[in-house]
Amino acid sequence: MTTESDHDYTVWPGDPYPLGSTYDGAGTNFALFSYVAEKVELCLIDREDNEVRINLEEVDANVWHCYLPGVQPGQRYGYRVHGPYDPHNGKRCDPNKLLVDPYARAFDGDFDGDPSLFSYDIFADPPGSGRNTEDSLGHTMKSVVINPFFDWGSDRAPRIPYNETVIYETHVKGMTMTHPDVPPNLRGTYAGLAHPAIISYLKDLGVTAIELMPVHQFLQDDRLRDLGLRNYWGYNTFGFFAPHQDYAAARKPGGAVSEFKGMVRAYHEAGMEVILDVVYNHTAEGNHLGPTIMFRGIDNEAYYRLVDGDKYHYMDYTGTGNSLNVRDPHSLQLIMDSLRYWITEMHVDGFRFDLASTLARELHDVDRLATFFDLVQQDPVVSQAKLIAEPWDIGHDGYQVGNFPPLWTEWNGKYRDTVRDFWRGEPATLGEFASRLTGSSDLYANNGRRPTASINFITAHDGFTLNDLVSYNEKHNMANGEDNRDGESHNRSWNHGAEGPTDDPEILALRARQRRNFLTTLILSLGTPMISHGDEMARTQDGNNNVY
């Protein structure tokens, strides 16, 4: 690897908007927000990780920018942000770390867990102390300039009303990896999910919308690497504008973007919508002991919610180590820009917001009038998409089922719990079961929402599958390497006389009847039904209720 500050690039001032890298057919505009930065270097990187640094001289409203004629799609790049490193006062700039672009549309490479990714000495005691001035280039991902042009043909949004919607929650890999009709080279990819065999199957089921578990770029956790495991679910995102590169059959940098667009176009042609599970409540950088790969090194205080009176530590409403700072206008802009991008450029039809209560925490309590909801309400693009909240987080008063604004629908956790209890014969559930069956008006009628505001579900990615719900009394999560401590212990499940697999014909018949009872209840209930992928064919996770 070599580093050069002298270069032959022509540098024009460029524009502070839009943020990120924007190719216009002749060159690329680069723009990065940082209030705390004293100097910003744009780093252009070749395939051998040789680096050319370009000092960004233009700064408007805390946005550092330039335009480089001739820079084409496929160009790898990153930033080095010079500024104060004072963790106890919330400032963590570190120019030794090559930072990826928060607005990058694609990424290349991987974070390999090397100590150079951390701004502190990972071997020091106490943890988090000392300084690590090693350069992280060669151990970190690179942002990639993309070609934004795509032939959408006659694509148009299906705009299926909620009262006609049937949602199918699924996973790009989980849906395609072992499917016999999907060509092996397309399994586990966006192209595989767009294969006619998959689309035809979903159409035959009566599905009108697929809800994809996270497809924003995420990283692999060091802890899972050490256990010989991989992050399957993907709730560890950082690239809010980029489709996850490992889900692309196209291996060239940036190839995931056009492949994802092609998948959306195929579903629209079949009359189905595409909804994304999005994770704007936290990022993959973790707590104060996490790596410096993006937001932390760009402007830590702007992007993260820090503990009041202790800016060394991060507020954690999510159980992941940090929470995005929705009190800062630039964090809010990031979220809104991301949502608009996925609608206008990627043509998706809606979003399910993971741990959505976190987005409403302007102070400490969940505020239904929070700025984020105001921004969504007035936005002419985002307000027209399907907006689904997971209405809880792990913070104080985080369980907010029924309390989201009128535009929103919600995963109805009370529906799930009540229906499970009813069909396993729990006493005193009949009255509430009737309420859930008829649209949960006690939750949604108070602000004028219709029964379709209730996203009814029996199972989801988080917990037992439907087959396991009627086959296990207890979780069996030993494969996760945490001695069965992880995952929910109170599952409202019933094994019907035997734990797990059995040859007893009476137990098997009763379990099959119960699966039909659950699915029939789901489809006949007032509200918007959501089916977890594979439940219709008795998919099992062998009693594991936390297969993240």
Q: What are the main properties of this structure?
A:
single chain, 6-stranded mixed β-sheet, 24 strands, alpha/beta, 548 residues, globular, 8-stranded parallel β-barrel, 13 helices
Outline, from the CA principal axes?
Answer: globular
How much β-strand is present in the residues? 15-25%
The unreliable regions are: none
Strand order of the largest sheet: 13-14-17-20-21-22-23-24
Mean pLDDT: 93
Relative helix content: 10-25%
For the termini, the CA-CA separation is 36 Å
Rg estimate, integer Å: 24 Å
Count the strands?
24
Number of helices: 13
What class, by secondary structure content?
A: alpha/beta
Main β-sheet description = 8 strands, parallel, barrel
Can you describe what's shown?
The longest helix has 20 residues, at 505-524. Helix 9 packs across helix 10 (430-437). This protein has helices at residues 172-176, 190-193, 196-205, 222-226, 255-269, 295-303, 329-344, 371-378, 413-423, 430-437, 441-444, 466-469, 505-524, and strands at residues 3-4, 20-23, 27-33, 39-45, 51-55, 58-60, 63-69, 76-82, 85-86, 91-92, 107-108, 142-144, 167-170, 209-212, 216-218, 237-243, 273-278, 306-307, 310-314, 350-353, 386-389, 409-411, 454-456, 528-532. A hairpin with a 3-residue loop joins strand 2 and strand 3 (27-33). An 8-stranded parallel barrel has the order 13-14-17-20-21-22-23-24. The chain is α/β, with parallel strands linked by helices and 548 residues long. It is built from 13 helices and 24 strands.
